[in-house]
Amino acid sequence: MDKGSQEVWVFVEQHSGQPVDVSLELLTKGRKLANTLRGPLKAVVIGHELDHAVKESFRYGADEVLRVDHPDLRDYKTLPYSRIICELIKERQPRVVLYGATFIGRDLAPRIASNSVSGLTADCTDLQIGDATWKKELCENLLLQIRPAFGGNIVATIITPDVHVQMATVREGVMEMMPAKAPCDGKITNILYEPTAADQLVKIIERHREAKRSNLKGAPIIVAGGYGLGTQKNFNLLYELAEVIGGEVAGTRAAVDAGFIPHDQQVGQTGLTVRPKLYIACGISGAIQHVAGMHDANRIIAINNDPNAPIFDVCHYGIVGDAASVVATFTETYKKKLK
Amino acid sequence: MNFNTVVMVKQVPDTSNISGEVMKPDGTVNRAKLPTIFNPDDKVALELALQVRDRFGGKVTAVTMGPPKAAELLRDCLYMGADDVCLITDRKFGGADTLATSYILSETIQKLGPFDLVFAGRQAIDGDTAQVGPQTAEKLGLPQITYAEEVIDLKEDKIVVKRRIDGGYEILESSLPVLITVLQEAATPRPFKATRLMALKNARTRLELEKMPETAAKPLDELISDYKNKGLYIQTLSREDLGVDLERCGIQGSPTKVHKVESVVLTGEEHKQFPATREGIGELLDSLIEEHFFG
What parts of chain B have a pLDDT lower than 50? Predict the structure, then answer.
């Protein structure tokens, strides 16, 4: 039906020239989507001194890099970055544009969607190319934007059948990251950046970044807690357990909202997606938003006092009982066995 | 100084309190049965706007788009200290995605403005998209500062804000006007003021006045002007008042469509149960140790 371009674009976010993981994950996914669409995969790389980011984009499957290199663009700034991408989209009409759901991606993508009047689906947990019937018409090769929906264990597939440019954001860790089998030394297209007065409306006075605090992504063992633990004191039992078995502690959205654990240690659709060897879910009911972020763990242990909690449908080992006291006994027993 | 501020607020279903009663047999949530609350981030945005007003001077207007019932939320805004409120409501606005919502909000802000500052919560708990703020800023042609943690300073033509970024923070200086989205940690919403509650609990929207028994005896226009004179009229805007393009409103103006919704049947294999006793936990540990999960 659609005769426009079949290009798939990935916005490659870089910090000091180093592309972030989620961008490489999206290139890996974008490669597959582009193959299905039979279109090229293009990386949009904006910043200054971008050789490494460009090279990595090719390594993860880009056919072409749209490079915008200028000293003023070294650090991300909403207005110039969004203006540049809006202009590129207007001119070249890509079929799909993907962004990491980082602070930057979530600042940038909605502005661009607003400008280009395209659809934008946040925090997708899967992306596919497929056909869909909309208003009795068959639309071929749409971007199927899949995400858990509010309430219950529901997954919604969102489409944007009436617009050419389809956009989505995806959290870090959701997609696999894999260098392309046959990476090409693709084409670099340099895009000229001309600063405007409007680009200077917001100035960075100070910027402070630290290396990531959370080691969740690569942790082989994760002890995770939910709202069911009830109190901070109970939640702290997880740290004791994690320490003796050599794991990291994570939490659900509800545990983060309750203040039990900082947001950067949240597992789930709006947090991190993890694939540890062992995942111990304590006082977690198992809402789809949480399960989306951990169901690929090799082994899942669920501890919950409600025998009907959905978490027991995804776990391998289950204990029905008060999570706090089971965790305390677990830690104590492990220490004894270690001796 | 006299800064004119608008805050975008939303009434949302209380997703943190989903009980069995609101679940339909097919496992979906009956939204109509969920209690509604003031979206937590938006409440913080209003608080921050009020603090900025109290520190630097000016006026705060809260606006919301929603069903007629969203008037409740605006009364809450008045009790907290908003100087003015405005309800944007129209059947044709229903089913809007973030793009259509940002269109209506930007048209409203243009009609009510000009404003120096536009505040909004980072995101709403019923969708968690965090899109409406930046989308509205783009439509208004304004700079934006998302994820604001603190307003450090405000001068006649510029504001200094601390915002969160991945792994740290940034301090930004923006010209005015600017749109700012606010993190929950930025402020603690103040409780309702009893004197304001007493004075403003009878504030009513046009739709509420239409339904009052007094309208039988008095033309609506007169009733509205009575309420206006008492400072109790909640400005109510429909699509005619805004003169918006219907094609860009509601479902029609929303490019994202729900293609299908599936209940997820979690397909975990049969799992092994261990009793919650010392022995049961010991048995589980033994099998984990045997499988070399530790060390």
Answer: none
**How many domains is chain B built from?**
1
Are A114 and B139 a contacting pair at CB < 8 A? yes
Q: What is the pLDDT of residue B112?
A: 97
Phi, psi of B222 (to 5 degrees): -70, -40
* C-alpha closest to that of B103 among B258, B295, B244, B255: B244
What local confidence, expressed as pLDDT, does residue A193 receive?
96
Q: What is the pLDDT of residue A1?
A: 42
Instruction: Please tell me if residue A176 touches chain B, with a CB cutoff of 8 Å.
Output: no
Q: Contact A319/B275, CB-based, under 8 Å?
A: yes
Enter the CATH code of domain A8-200: 3.40.50.620
* Diameter of chain B measured on Cα atoms: 83
Interface ipTM > 0.85: yes
CATH number at residue B93: 3.40.50.620
Q: CB of B15 within 8 Å of any CB in chain A?
A: yes
Give a yes or no: residue B75 inside a domain: yes
In a domain, B101, yes or no: yes
Fold assignment, A216-338: Rossmann fold (3.40.50)
CA-to-CA distance for A29 and A128, rounded, in angstroms?
Answer: 9
Query: Hey, is the C-beta of B285 within 8 angstroms of any chain A C-beta?
Result: yes
Q: Amino acid letter at A94? A: P
% of residues, chain A, pLDDT over 90: 82
Say what the pLDDT of residue B217 is: 83
**Is A313's CB within 8 Å of B268's CB?**
yes
Best residue in B142, B259, B286, B290 for a mutation probing chain A (most A CBs within 10 Å): B259
Tens digits of residue pLDDT in A182-194: 877 789 999 999 9
